[in-house]
# Entry
Amino acid sequence: MPRLPGDWQRQVEWLAPEGSLVSSGDLIARLDPGSLLTQEEEKRIDLEKKKLEAARHTATLALAILDAETAVLQAESEVALTKINADAPIGTVVKLDYDRYKLDFTTANRALVHARKELAARRLEQENSVKVLNMKVAKAASEWQRMVAAIKQTKVHATRDGYFIHAQNEGTGNKIFAGETLKSNDPIAEVASRDGLQFRFWIHEADSRKFPLGSRMLITPDALPQDEITAEVIWSSKQASRREEWSQGGYFELQARPMDTVPKTYMPGMSVRGELAP
# Structure
């Protein structure tokens, strides 16, 4: 069960039939998306809102820059006009006009400096605002893509060819079924192959010492009692798990590897019985 945003547990809506032969890419399980669909819609709307706000603010800043550039052009024109009078020699105009021309030129230059500062401030504001707006849009897009990816994960596809085997519920020991609710990281199923086939057993804690690593077992399929082979115990769990539907006490998990050639009649997911070899 994948770890998805929102609920800590999720329902298995559908599973491919137990024992069916599947190919890589086949849909093998579908999970209930639950609130993911609503969250995806909310995140998508928020992303569109952030994009609209960014576009609107960018347009406002662009207009402010255009106004500031116009103000600079006007100030430069005013400086050029007042400079003509200010450059007139003092002897060619009366003293009062000469002083006024100089004052107008100084005032125009100050206005030009102020207009250029305003233009620089507007451009800096635009640069900083664009960075902030892009970050907000990128964050909203990331959150939306996270929901899209989560919804995609509710459809599980096979990554290899093999036989589809439903997992066992670790709490009950029964096969996982469609409609069951599982926690994140709980096993749902597996696509198994005959290559590297191994056997998995549950041994009551009272009998666990009888099956040390390296011990030999006689394996007999429930449906094929005549096809008995020998296997070697290669792994044992460190602690017992409860299987209340079986009996009181705990059960250890064992894994055994076949020592003989595995008959073609053996298939992944097949139930077998194991007993200690004499």
